[in-house]
């Protein structure tokens, strides 16, 4: 698989919660930071989201906002309003006036990710993905939004299952949307994949993770000098090439240990260590405990 498919496969995303969020009149709410990835799709009207230390961001009908790691934020009908603290809920919420025709409607909620590797994998993604309706409307992404909006309005049999699958598809489409990862100031996997030379190195690592990769070898694949490649890779990915390789190997090891179906010898061979002993030493150094204890902790 390609690097992004590998990341998504280990995350095993699913829509944990999805609910209508509506409002009327003047209103404002504030949420504390939480570790669940959050999303919002604006179905009608507009609202303003504000993150600490930033200017308010206007969200209008058809906009999509994904927060792989959700920071504290406020949501309001207009910028500058007083926002009251609220807790995330698993059911429909209505803000502002409680009677009368709505002037704002969104589908919001959170995704569930595989916990074993979520911190590492999410760190490779942008902190925020905002796809305005004007950018996504004429694309497949826009068509997914339209289908979700229709399903939210209609009470058809199988609605919950349909929304679950569509939200998963929307997550994948958002992560590979052409505008994501173009900002080189934000280091991570998507930024690296936008660079043809670094993408070749990433594909090599993910295609044969057990190979004895060196910086020189990866630089040759990228068609760059060793020093230029190291600088470019570090700037785009936020870590050195061999550090990325080690992190990915450990992610695969943690996934295999959590499933409990492979021996240490088999895991070591598959991710590029000469022996179970060498793998155990590297794992303990990186994670602070031996593989066997990690497997028992995850299982228990």
Automatic annotation (TrEMBL):
Alphabetized UniProt keyword annotations: DNA-binding, Transcription, Transcription regulation
Residue span(s) of domain HTH araC/xylS-type: 199-297
Ranges in a coiled coil: none
PROSITE patterns with a match to the protein in the record: HTH_ARAC_FAMILY_1, HTH_ARAC_FAMILY_2
Residues making up the signal peptide according to the UniProt record: none
Keyword Transcription regulation: yes
Pfam families assigned to the protein according to its UniProt record, in alphabetical order: Cupin_6, HTH_18
PANTHER family for this protein: ARAC FAMILY TRANSCRIPTIONAL REGULATOR, HTH-TYPE TRANSCRIPTIONAL ACTIVATOR RHAS-RELATED
Name of this protein: AraC-like DNA-binding protein
Organism of provenance: Novosphingobium capsulatum
């Amino acid at each position: 698989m390609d690097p992004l498919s590998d990341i998504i496969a280990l995350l095993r995303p699913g829509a944990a919660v999805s609910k209508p969020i509506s409002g009327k009149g003047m209103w404002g709410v504030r949420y504390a930071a939480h570790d669940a990835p959050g999303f919002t799709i604006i179905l009608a009207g507009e609202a303003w989201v504000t993150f600490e230390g930033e200017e308010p961001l206007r969200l209008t009908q058809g906009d999509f906002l994904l927060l792989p790691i959700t920071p504290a934020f406020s949501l309001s009908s207009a910028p500058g309003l007083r926002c009251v603290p609220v807790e995330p809920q698993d059911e429909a919420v209505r803000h502002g006036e409680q009677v009368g025709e709505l002037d704002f409607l969104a589908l919001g909620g959170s995704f569930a990710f595989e916990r074993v590797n979520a911190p590492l994998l999410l760190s490779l993604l942008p902190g925020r993905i905002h796809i305005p309706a004007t950018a996504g409307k004429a694309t497949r992404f826009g068509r997914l939004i339209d289908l979700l909006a229709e399903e939210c309005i209609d009470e058809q049999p199988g609605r919950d299952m349909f929304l679950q699958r569509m939200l998963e598809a929307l997550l994948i489409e958002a992560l590979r949307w052409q505008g994501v990862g173009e900002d080189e100031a934000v280091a991570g996997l998507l930024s690296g994949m936008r660079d043809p030379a670094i993408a070749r190195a990433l594909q090599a690592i993910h295609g044969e993770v057990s190979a004895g990769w060196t910086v020189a070898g990866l630089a040759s694949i990228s068609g760059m000098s060793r020093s230029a490649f190291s600088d470019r890779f570090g700037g785009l990915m936020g870590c050195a090439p061999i550090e990325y390789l080690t992190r990915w190997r450990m992610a695969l090891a943690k996934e295999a240990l959590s499933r409990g179906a492979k021996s240490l010898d088999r895991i070591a061979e598959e991710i590029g260590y000469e022996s179970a002993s060498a793998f155990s030493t590297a794992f303990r150094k990186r994670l602070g405990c031996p593989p066997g204890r990690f497997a028992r902790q995850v299982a228990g």
